[in-house]
Amino acid sequence: MPQLNPNPWFFIMLASWLTFTLLIQPKLLSFTSTNPPLSKTSMTIKTSPWTWPWT
Q1: Is 49 left (phi over 0), alpha (psi -120 to 50) or beta?
Q2: pLDDT per residue rounded down to tens, the chain (55 residues)
Q3: Greatest CA span in the chain, whole angstroms?
Q4: How far, CA to CA in Å, does 47 sit from each of 18, 24, 41, 42, 52?
Q5: Half-sphere exposure of 4 (CA within 13 A, CB side)
Q6: Is residue 34 helix, strand or coil?
Q7: pTM of the entire structure?
């Protein structure tokens, strides 16, 4: 069964993970968010109880 032979597939998996970890991931993490959550002010919403018409 050639699927159980790890020789070519292990190198492909290792090369793809190293490419992702060393090249793609730092480029993706360097982007800054357009709306950082720390710049938003916290709003408190005043809630009122619901008045049911049949009570």
Answers
A1: beta
A2: 556 777 888 899 999 999 988 988 888 888 766 666 666 566 788 888 888 888 6
A3: 74
A4: 52, 46, 19, 16, 15
A5: 1
A6: coil
A7: 0.44
Q: How many helices (H) and strands (E) does the chain have?
A: 2, 0
Dihedral angle, C-alpha 10, 12, 14, 18, nearest 10 °: 180
Q: 53: which 2 tokens? A: 């018409």
Q: Which two tokens stand for residue 37?
A: 């959550």
Query: Tokens 């357009």 — which residue?
Result: 34
How far, in Å, CA of 24 to CA of 16, rounded? 10
Number of residues in the chain: 55
**What would the two tokens of residue 8 be?**
């070519």
